[in-house]
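Running co-folding for magnesium ion.
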Amino acid sequence: MNIEQHMRFFELAAVRFRQELDNLSELDSALGDGDHGASMLKGFSMIWEKISQQTYQDIGTLWMDAGKILMKEVGGTCGPLFATILIKGGFSARGAQDTDAGRLAEMLHAGSEGVQTLGKASPGDKTMVDALAPAARAMDEAAGAGAGLEDALCCAVRAARDGAAATKDMLASRGRGRYQAENAIGHVDPGAVSVCILLESLYEASKTA
Ligand code: ADP
Ligand code: MG
């Protein structure tokens, strides 16, 4: 996946967060304060507005810049956490002109580790980690088994979707969802859905010429 395709990823993500605004708002209303969709839309719209005016020489710098924009523009919990995915992922790809399945697996892994270090959530806590950690693992396994980028990303998307779906039956022990106790059961975590949206956007971008 080259720099143009990574730019396309951010463009598609901004479009998807606009389409998913109501859905994410509803999910966050059940578990939190209802702002998640608006935060993600604001952040990724701002990322696209700013990066589309720049020329990037490498994928790492592009991702790190995007992360810094998110960090600056979006407060709450999700701003710094999603910014961490981009900054840590970008750091691991600094200097790269292209990302194959192995490199993208490293980026997702670095992002996932960064989020868990910062937010202290583990798999099973009903957060974005429940989609991100299995996606990073699936990407890694697929890359290790010799899969191409598109196939490996397809595995990552599937793992993220399964992980997000599994949050429905979990009790939340991190984030605002923990105030809901068992009332949170039956609701999918919005941050996990946002991880799916990002991976789906990456997958779509990888298929573009
Ligand atoms: P806020 O909780 O500040 O309103 P958002 O609504 O934008 O932030 O984001 C909520 C999402 O953030 C949750 O759905 C969850 O996935 C994620 N989240 C919350 N706390 C944590 C944490 N400690 N670690 C990882 N993700 C978290
Ligand atoms: Mg919220």
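Result summary
The radius of gyration is 16 Å.
The mean pLDDT is 95.
Job closed.
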